[in-house]
Amino acid sequence: MPGPNGCALSGCNYSVQEPSFAHPRRAQLFRWDLRPTDKDTIRIKYQTWFTKSVGWNVSAGPGQWGLTRVRYDFTADQGKLDYTRIITPNLINEASIGIFHDVELGPAESELAYAAIQKQYDRFAALGTSAPPPPARRMAI
User: Fold this and answer.
1) Which of 24, 97, 119, 137 gives a 20 to 30 Å CA spacing to 31?
2) Beta-carbon neighbour count of residue 69 at 10 Å?
């Protein structure tokens, strides 16, 4: 764990403070309304969402103790199909079906970031530690 940043007496005992980083986002929407007859309506909608950010303190990142810079990628795709039929002036039939798929990833920023983490673990392995022996069994008399 990193030590305090030196201003602990004034109340700002944080370990990492990162300047603002870019949060690129992209949203796309496609909608198509069809009226094959006066009594039928068909609506098709497809929507995508994408965001990506890289840094020490990204949204939904791992523990905020500065192990490595990470990437936060989030995508969401959804589609919907609606059908409406006017049967009589007082009776309407509606049917809808939809799908939603999202992916949320938070890998390290690069392969070098993974290598830096691995080096830290290799230092522990060099100490010669091994798994502790199993606990002794007690027998009831």
Assistant:
1) 24
2) 19
**What φ, ψ does residue 118 adopt, rounded to 5°?**
-65, -40
Average pLDDT on 97-107 reads 90
Evaluate the CA torsion angle 59, 77, 46, 85 in order and state its sign.
negative
Report the candidate in 111, 3, 121 with the shortest Cα–Cα distance to residue 66.
3
> What is the pTM assigned to this prediction?
0.57
Rounded to the nearest 5°, which phi and psi values hold at 86?
Answer: -90, 110
Which tokens go with 18?
A: 């990162």
Contact 113, 67 (CB under 8 A): no
Task: Compute and round to an integer the Cα radius of gyration of the chain.
Answer: 28
Q: What is the dihedral of CA 30, 33, 36, 40, to 10 degrees?
A: 130
